[in-house]
Design a protein that fits this description.
The strands form four sheets. This protein has a six-stranded antiparallel β-barrel. It is built from three helices and 15 strands. The relative contact order is 0.17. It has 236 residues and is of the alpha+beta class.
C-alpha cells in the first residue's frame, strides 16, 4: 500500500497523525508520514510513535517498502508493533532531520562548484560528501570552500518542481549523478531548483533558502579509486 509522503510538499513538518496500514517483523506502515526513508545517500529519519494509550515507541530507522511510495518505519528490537487500523502520532527527531536538510542542500551547491559527473554521495548530520569523476589536480580545497560559501551567501530560495519523464529524456544534462538514477514509472520526476545555481532531479529533503545551510568548510579531498575523487564538506 502506498504512503502519502508529506515531506515531499513540506520538509518542515515535524509530526503528523496517521493510521497504521500494515505491521510485521520490526516495522509498520502508515497511510501518511513525515519520515523520509533512506535513499539517494540521505539516511532514513528517526523519531517516535505515540499510541492512542499514550505510550511512546522509538522509530530507529525508516526505509522504503516493497510497493512504490510505501514507507517502512522500524522500531527497537522486541517492541510491540501497532495494529493495522490504529491511529498514531509520528514525530521526527527534528534536529537530526534538519541537519540532513542543510547538508543535502549544500551538496547541491557543491555540485555546481565542482563541475564533473557525480559518482557517489553520502549525507550525515554533521557532514556530507560527493565523489566526482575528475582529476585530483582540478580540486583545490580553498577555492571550493570559498565558492560554495559565496553561493550560500546569496541566500536564494529553493523550489520543488516536477517534469514529465519525456521532458527529462529531452534534457539529459539535468542528471548529474552516475550512481543514483531518477525514479521513473510514475510519469513525472521531482526536481530541486536553486534559481541561477542548480536544477536537478532529487527526491530528498532540503532547506527553503540556501542561507540556512550556514558557513561550511572542506574537511578533506582524497582519491577513492580510478573514477572517484571524494570531496567531504561539513559545517564550519
Amino acid at each position: 500500500m502506498t504512503t502519502e509522503l508529506l515531506f515531499r510538499d513540506d520538509a518542515y513538518l515535524k509530526s503528523c497523525p496517521a493510521t497504521v496500514t500494515a505491521a510485521g517483523g520490526r516495522g509498520f506502515e502508515v497511510d501518511r508520514t513525515v519520515f523520509y526513508p533512506a535513499g539517494g545517500g540521505q539516511p532514513g529519519d528517526t523519531g517516535t510513535l505515540r499510541r492512542s494509550d499514550g505510550s511512546v515507541l522509538r522509530i530507529v530507522d525508516t526505509r522504503k517498502g516493497e510497493a512504490p511510495d510505501s514507507v517502512l518505519h522500524l522500531l527497537d528490537e522486541g517492541a510491540r508493533l501497532p495494529a493495522p487500523g490504529e491511529r498514531v502520532e509520528l514525530a521526527l527527531d527534528w534536529d537530526r532531520r534538519y541537519a540532513h536538510m542543510r547538508i543535502h542542500t549544500c551538496l547541491h551547491v557543491l555540485s555546481c562548484v565542482v563541475v564533473a559527473p557525480v559518482t557517489g554521495g553520502n549525507i550525515a548530520a554533521d557532514r556530507g560528501r560527493l565523489d566526482f569523476d575528475i582529476e585530483m589536480s582540478q580540486l583545490d580545497a580553498g577555492r571550493i570552500e570559498r565558492e560554495v560559501n559565496a553561493l550560500i551567501a546569496r541566500a536564494i530560495d529553493t523550489e520543488t518542481v516536477w517534469i514529465t519523464d519525456e521532458e527529462l529524456d529531452a534534457r539529459p544534462e539535468l542528471v548529474k549523478t552516475m550512481s543514483v538514477k531518477p525514479p521513473r514509472g510514475a510519469g513525472r520526476v521531482r526536481l530541486l531548483r536553486i534559481e541561477g545555481i542548480d536544477l536537478q532531479p532529487c527526491g530528498g529533503t532540503h532547506v527553503r533558502n540556501i542561507a540556512e545551510i550556514g558557513q561550511v568548510k572542506v574537511l578533506r579531498i582524497r582519491n577513492e579509486g580510478r573514477r572517484n575523487r571524494r570531496v567531504e564538506i561539513g559545517f564550519a
